[in-house]
Design a protein that fits this description.
The chain is an alpha/beta fold. The protein has three domains: 136 residues, Alpha-helical ferredoxin (Fumarate Reductase Iron-sulfur Protein, Chain B, domain 2), CATH 1.10.1060; 181 residues, FAD/NAD(P)-binding domain; 155 residues, 3-Layer(bba) Sandwich (FAD/NAD(P)-binding domain), CATH 3.50.50.60. Helix content is 33%, strand content 17%. The protein is built from 19 helices and 18 strands. The strands form five sheets. A six-stranded mixed beta sheet has the order 5-4-3-6-18-17, sandwiched between helices. A hairpin with a 1-residue loop joins strand 12 and strand 13. Helix 6 packs antiparallel against helix 8. The two termini are 40 Å apart. The structure holds flavin-adenine dinucleotide and iron/sulfur cluster. Iron/sulfur cluster binds next to helix 7 and helix 8. Flavin-adenine dinucleotide binds next to helix 9, helix 10, helix 13, helix 14 and helix 18.
Length: 496
């Protein structure tokens, strides 16, 4: 275990955060990590408890998400090695369960820390920051590519290069398969690249991983909609994996929706990232505009952060859900997630700059007003009774020249399955508990227990077909998409 009794006299120290006045001037990482030495001291606080809930990754009755790390990262062992300065061994421990700690170390909301035993009495161990520090160390030392596959190796085609597709690709390459990843965007990464903004996940972090994957023989075929190459993909593959995400957005179907200046959040976020990467001006700008973001969660928070960086005049976030309580009794809910009010980085920055949190809760959008372009968003307060809402409160109007819809996602695009003549599973419809939409709409439990949609057909040489990530689970988290990708690869390999 870490240092005996360290948790009694060493306090938790988190990474630093750049002040908003500075961080909104660019799209660079807003986090300033501790040094490896400081992180090693933080790791010493780990108590190596007998029952380490942090690494359990189990679903407790009634819990919407897993408790503890869905990857079952070996957290106390890793912390102990980090504390003892056995950095290379710690990196190897992480790699046993997590192929991409450089992603989770930056974007994971750390259910492990919520379940940390120390968190019951004091502040939890900095598990997420420890993971990032070790992955940064690993990349400084250099990550070796995998051996190249043999010419006669079996072929797997993966549609989609988000964290789920990348995980399946890496695992199949590790098993010696030839791997082809089809991606309709111009760059690989899925929502890592074109959803989560640069200040949370700098894009060079994805690029360097893709480079190692390419050196390992994995082919990325970008700018390619797989549905336009069905015959090629079917004939060349022994197995086919749908990792297409769940990116069909939920709309706000009210009067005035057709007005100019109203965008889906991911279209806005991806245009910003694309313009930064291509070093050109962005076609959607919040500069000097009143911005209204509809929907809470991380997507809404990312929109707030981006609009601030583009120089918005004002930002308001309209959220149907009720405001969560400021505190809860940890002893009653631990190790499950806590329903407490939290601020994302964008909301914190908005608070620092505008003097108020941008969110208004228990409020619905009832119309968009304007003449060709949007000028205002009409809203109405909701009242909640016994968990159900009624639209009966006061109406109001918010000035808006830019509206961003961040209401979550309806699931995967069924037409991709249909193009390959594959019966789509009972795909998730309104999910997005993570994205923070109304709890009335939550439903993020995977509907099919198996990843296999169709076994290999020897007579007609049709590939075995699998599904992984958000397309199977509904909109969720990077860590869940990676865990699901690992499960999918395991199931696929067991079939061949
Ligand atoms: C704005 C935003 C912020 C988020 N922030 C966080 C966060 O901070 N932390 C966190 O843990 N999670 C976050 N998430 C959730 C997380 O990004 C997703 O759960 C995760 O990326 C899902 O991975 P995936 O591989 O299943 O799908 P995706 O990442 O959605 O990737 C699917 C890929 O498939 C491609 N594709 C689809 N159809 C085709 C086709 N026909 N041909 C070729 N390619 C195709 C798509 O272009 C896409 O690249 C966020 C989500 C959003 C939208
Ligand atoms: S992947 Fe997420 S849940 Fe797992 S140890 Fe890392 S931060 Fe915690």
């Amino acid at each position: 275990m870490g240092r005996i009794g360290a948790f009694l006299h060493i306090d938790r120290v988190d990474h630093a955060i750049r002040p908003a006045s500075e961080s909104v001037c660019d799209f660079d990482d807003y986090v300033v990590p501790l040094t490896l030495e400081e992180q090693s001291e933080q790791a010493s606080r780990c108590m190596n408890c007998g029952v380490a809930f942090c690494q359990s990754g189990i679903r407790l009755g009634g819990s919407k998400h897993e408790v503890g790390c869905p990857l079952h990262n070996l957290i106390p062992e890793t912390n102990d090695l980090l504390y003892r300065h056995r950095f290379d061994d710690a990196v190897k421990r992480v790699a046993l369960t997590n192929p991409f700690p450089e992603f989770t170390g930056r974007v994971c909301p750390a259910p492990c820390e919520v379940a940390c035993n120390l968190g019951l009495h004091k502040k939890a161990v900095t598990i997420n920051d420890n993971e990032r520090a070790l992955s940064d160390y690993a990349w400084e030392q250099g990550i070796d590519p995998l051996p190249l596959p043999s010419d006669d190796a079996s072929v797997v085609s993966i549609i989609g290069s988000g964290p789920a597709g990348l995980t399946v690709a890496w695992e199949m390459a590790r098993a010696g398969w030839r791997v082809r990843v089809y991606e309709k965007a111009d760059r690989p990464g899925g929502l890592l690249m074109y959803g989560i903004p640069n200040m949370k996940l700098p894009k060079w972090v994805i690029d360097r991983r893709i480079d190692v994957m390419k050196q390992s023989g994995i082919e990325f075929i970008c700018n390619t909609d797989a549905t336009e190459h069905v015959d090629n993909i079917t004939t060349e593959s022994d197995a086919l994996v749908f990792a297409i995400g769940a990116q069909v957005p939920r709309d706000v179907a009210v009067d005035g929706r057709e007005l100019d200046g109203i965008y889906f959040a991911v279209d806005y976020l991806s245009e910003i990232t694309n313009s930064l990467l291509d070093d050109r001006s962005c076609t959607i700008s919040a500069k000097d505009k009143d911005v209204v973001v509809i929907g809470g969660g991380d997507t809404g928070n990312d929109c707030v952060g981006c609009a601030l960086r583009q120089g918005a005049k004002s930002i308001t976030q309209v959220i149907r859900a009720q405001k969560a309580p400021e505190m809860c009794n940890i002893q009653e809910v631990w190790p499950a997630e806590r329903n407490v009010f939290t601020q994302g980085y964008g909301q914190r920055e908005a608070c620092e700059l505008f003097g108020r949190d941008p969110r208004i809760f228990s409020t619905d959008t009832i119309a968009f007003k304007g003449n060709n372009a949007v000028e205002a968003v009409e809203i109405q307060a909701l009242s909640y009774e016994g968990g159900r809402h009624r639209i009966e409160g006061a109406e109001d109007s918010l000035p808006a020249q830019l509206v961003l819809i961040a209401k979550g996602f309806l699931g995967a695009d069924r037409s991709v399955f249909e193009a390959f003549d594959v019966e789509p599973p009972n795909l998730q419809t309104p999910s997005d508990s993570f994205q923070g939409s109304s709890s009335l709409e939550n439903n993020s439990v995977a509907s099919c227990s198996s990843h296999c949609l169709r076994a290999f057909d020897q007579q007609v040489q049709k590939p075995a077909v699998f599904i992984a990530g958000d397309s199977r689970l509904g909109s969720t988290l990077v860590v869940n998409a990676i865990a699901d990708g690992l499960d999918c690869a395991r199931e696929l390999l067991a079939m061949f």
